[in-house]
Amino acid sequence: MDVPADEPTEPTGADPVPLTEPAEGVPPVVSDLSALRRAATALAGAKGPVAVDTERASGYRYSQRAYLVQLRREGAGTVLVDPIALGGRLDPLVEALEGTEWVLHAASQDLPCLAELDLHPSVLFDTELAGRLAGFERVALGTLVERLLGYRLEKGHGAADWSRRPLPADWLNYAALDVELLIELRDVLEQELKRQGKLEWAHEEFEAARNAPLSRPRAEPWRRTSGIHRIRNPRQLAAVRALWETRDSVARERDIAPGRVLPDAALVDAAVRNPVDEAALLALPVFRGRAQRRMVGTWLGALQRAAALPRTELPEPSPHHDGPPPANRWSDKDPAAALRLAAVRAALTAIAEANTLPVENLLLPDLVRRTCWQPPEDLTPAGVERALLDGGARRWQVDLTADALAEALQPPPPPTE
After folding, report:
1. How many CA atoms lie within 13 A of 185 on its CB side?
2. Which of 70, 94, 158, 394 could form a disulfide with 204 if both were Cys (CB 3.0 to 4.6 A apart)?
3. Contact (Cβ atoms closer than 8 angstroms) between residue 53 and residue 175
4. How many CA atoms lie within 13 A of 292 on its CB side?
5. How far apart are CA 75 and CA 181, in angstroms?
6. For residues 145 and 151, what is the distance between their CA atoms, to the nearest angstrom?
7. Final residue belonging to a domain, choices 189, 211, 233
8. In which element (H, E) is residue 102 found?
9. Which residues contact 323 (CB under 8 A, 6 or more apart)?
């Protein structure tokens, strides 16, 4: 049966084969310099792309460092590297991987911690991003492997505390499986993108991901505290901010995930209840625990500093925006902008559907909002094209959308009498 060029190929329908362990077994973890040199030599002498993955300890540690690096290349097999045991110095590996194509799944999650180890891809292929561009609705690694390769991966330890030593054998088995089929998945996705005429789009996206800033500090990150919607006034917001910043300092110093130092719910509860002394604070849930009793003076000090702030230093009730306001307020603030946004969204949705793409991969939602809130003075296709490129859109995105956006951004004709 012929498949339309803009739709992803359907799977064969056969039951997936469980893949519970790597075909070559789980290799020993590389944890000393001599073993690292041998592994690097093997990788350098192999051929083709290199599958790369990392394991972090998110939810357990403050840092986002890599506690295990997994690599696989045809001719070298799988390599598991312990960067902690090696003191974060992987120089032989850096040299061995120079100039090779790296295959990662959801690369933006791994590239920052790899960069901490001085590991930077020369060429990137992101299988998650490739799956999105190919039009697959579900792009988790296990889902794509099952659909396109016919294997069901053994999963279950992605959220584990990978800072633990020694690492359990079943964890290492899981980590090795994450790169076992990554090269095969890359090859199938490349062929699918080529079949759909999207391979050059993917190359542009991969290069943008490879060169994207590794860290983007958020303005006022304390405002992301879960449950902060319960806060009613600026003085309470100041209390949340003070507790959040104190917790962050403690978590960073101890390298513990902030939520394990003190959960968000406790920050908000203390800000709302406003305890006046240690006894009142210790009466609150969570603060009754042994760990919090030891730190009661620290938490109360944060609350007292917030209470002593002059009004001029209290936080604003709403976060500061360096761009347009939330879209649900546009109708009140600028009805014309709201009409532009609706027209542009409709145009983009039609283009995305015609090309079997998620609309958010067609153009970043933030760029769409900014363009609609403050459109370019030149509303010709060429003017819109320049505005999109200046806003970070890729060439393929501009080619698909500039004409339609130029039309959608036009002011409505004056009403006829």
Report:
1. 36
2. 394
3. yes
4. 23
5. 14
6. 6
7. 211
8. strand 101-104
9. 366, 369, 370, 373
1 pLDDT above the threshold of 60: no
Give residues with Cβ within 8 angstroms of 100, minimum separation 6: 49, 50, 73, 121, 122, 123
Both structure tokens of 4:
């339309």
Distances (CA, A) of 206 to 21, 101, 124, 394: 30, 11, 6, 11
Closest CA to 149 of 180, 126, 176: 180
pLDDT reading at 335 higher than 70: yes
Same structural domain, 182 and 70: yes
Between CA 388 and CA 372 the distance in angstroms is 11
Cross-strand bridge partners of residue 72:
51, 78
151 in Cβ contact with 19 (< 8 Å): yes
Look up residue 205 and give its two tokens: 């996206």
pLDDT tens-digit map of 106-136: 999 999 999 999 999 999 999 999 999 999 9
Last residue of a domain, one of 178, 211, 244: 211
* Higher pLDDT pick, 8 / 46: 46
Please tell me whether residues 123 and 149 are part of one structural domain. Answer: yes
Residues 141-184: tens digit of each pLDDT: 999 999 999 999 977 788 899 999 999 999 999 999 999 999 99
pLDDT band at 2 (very low <50, low <70, confident <90, very high): very low
Q: Is residue 134 part of a domain?
A: yes
- Backbone CA torsion sign across 156, 158, 162, 167: positive
Joined together, the tokens standing for residue 31 give: 């944890």
The burial class, CB within 10 Å (0-12 / 13-18 / 19+), for 156 is exposed
pLDDT value of position 4: 44
In this structure, what CATH number is given to the domain that contains residue 182? 3.30.420.10
